[in-house]
Request: fold
Amino acid sequence: MTLARTTSINLLGLKGEPIEIEVDVSNGLPAYSLLGLPDATLSESRDRIRAAILNSGRSWPNRKVTVSLSPAWLPKSGSAFDLPIALSILTASGQLKESDLSKAFFLGELSLEGNLRPVRGVLPTLIAARDRGVKRVIVPIENFQEAGLLKDLEVLAFSKLSHVITFLESGVRAENPTLIDAPKEVTKYDMSEVAGHVENKVALEIAAAGGHNLLMIGAPGSGKTMLAERFSTILPPLDEDEAIEVSGIHSIAGTLKDRNVLSAEPPFIAPHHSTTIPALVGGGSNLIKPGACSLAHRGVLFIDEAPECDSGILDALRQPMESGSITISRSALTTSFPARFILLLAANPCPCGRFAGRGRGCQCTSLQVRRYLAKLSGPLLDRVDIRLRIESPTRVELSTSSAERSESIRIRVIRARAIAAERFAHESFKLNSQIPPTLLRERFRPNKDGMALLHSLLDKEELSARGFHRTIRLSWSIADVNGVTAPGKPEIEQALLLRSGMPGE
Reply:
């Protein structure tokens, strides 16, 4: 036959759009045409595919070859189309049977030698294919462990185009890789390594239990970064569905090699303060990649030296902090990535860093201090529930070796989240930080003493409406950590103390 068809998937964020690949080999001057808005990588596929076919012992049709990727209006990107296009060309030129193309879903980049190279985004691509009824997939052997996470798919992996052709023709598999259990993860950090900071560790535990964003202000060397780096170790481990979702995001970004394929550890992402908006929220011309806030999905996004960020960088986080997702629009398409993270911000108290602390000599004027901290905008701080003043540990604290390990704190956080999950069993949210204001005033009110304290502060105009809602959310997390049925006056007082540094309240 002169016409062959197969299907593939084009990723838009974590969602896959089905693509029909049609190849027509017809009489005419030898030529190769690729239709359907391909990007530069895909446009270069002709020479890769031609060399791979020839070096796999097959012939390139000395006729006019037309490849169409439908729908034509959707921009296509990536090299994962190489393998299905090559097999379609072989089928259209009579070197493979039409029925061979229906045996599997194909995914992979081709080298000039005919080897199959790994591609990005295998996990979300195969999830989209599975949802459309695919039962068997063929992937590059380097992507086998990632693809093998989907238990309801038959995954075949090969290293060469010639091996794929042999399998389609005869059913003989030249390679039969097996899934390898991921090595047990060893955490790099532990909260017991941080001397002192007992009250700050309690605040971090409350933030982890309720999913609250947190700001730490302290002098250089006081322990802000140490606390932040160990925060993810007290978060509950990811369940299987969450781990697959996180791995899918990292697969698209090409950072899956930095994690176990099915890691249960919440991600910890710490971009430098000189980062750009596209690096933080995601971007790209054709293939839109997730940024740091999406890579931190279901984990922690830590920005050290936050006031040093360029104007607008931190404010770009306001949308994902509110909605739990990031939407990136281009002229031809709109892409969304999940981005529900806990934000940790760290800042010095002034430009020189010596404004706070014992025995420090700050030379900054009050105007310089105000300008420095004003770089953390009001709308951003509106979304930060906890603000801590970090003091350096004392000599006694530094000489004390006993400190609570992360695992012990994590157990309490898991217990607190289980209490919240039972309370929110019939709601669309799971964390205290996500309770809508209407429900805070109706179903999730503190007890009588707690409400009396809040009302007195409102009457004195010492608490804003925004602070009223956020204080109640925080008090529920404190109650869950302490095993209290509902927040009362002690929990409200502790919540107010944790929020005491917030401006406008």
Remarks:
- The chain is about 35% helix and 15% strand.
- The chain has three domains: 3-170, 191-423, 435-505.
- The longest strand covers residues 15-26.
- Residues 208 and 235 are 6 Å apart (CA to CA).
